[in-house]
Design goal:
Blueprint: H1 7-18, E1 21-23, E2 34-39, E3 45-51, E4 59-63, E5 70-73, H2 75-85
Antiparallel strand pairs: 1-5, 2-3, 3-4, 4-5
Helix pairs in contact: 1-2
Length: 87
């Protein structure tokens, strides 16, 4: 388990999540590579599953409270997340 508390990392996660694009249609996903827990300044907790793509690919995000919907994270944010998470 890794805890990210620095502003740069938190900004990256916030932007990647907030700009993710909702995908329509059915969801049939393998087990996630990563589980994220985001805690906001009010102490609210949000859970996500993350399937991190490779460089040049998109990634997939799923809210743990809505496992019937996936969101696509852009290639640019995928590359930044790879640099952060796989370091």
């Amino acid at each position: 388990m890794v805890i990210y508390e620095d502003e740069e990392s938190l900004d990256l996660f916030q932007h990647a999540i907030s700009t993710a694009v909702k995908n329509e249609g059915g969801v049939d996903m393998a087990s996630p590579e990563y589980d994220l827990q985001v805690v906001d300044t009010a102490g609210n907790k949000y859970g996500y599953h993350l399937w991190l793509g490779e460089n040049g690919q998109s990634s997939v995000l799923m809210n743990t409270k809505d496992t019937h919907t996936i969101y696509t994270i852009s290639k640019d944010y995928t590359e930044a997340l790879i640099a952060l998470v796989r370091q």
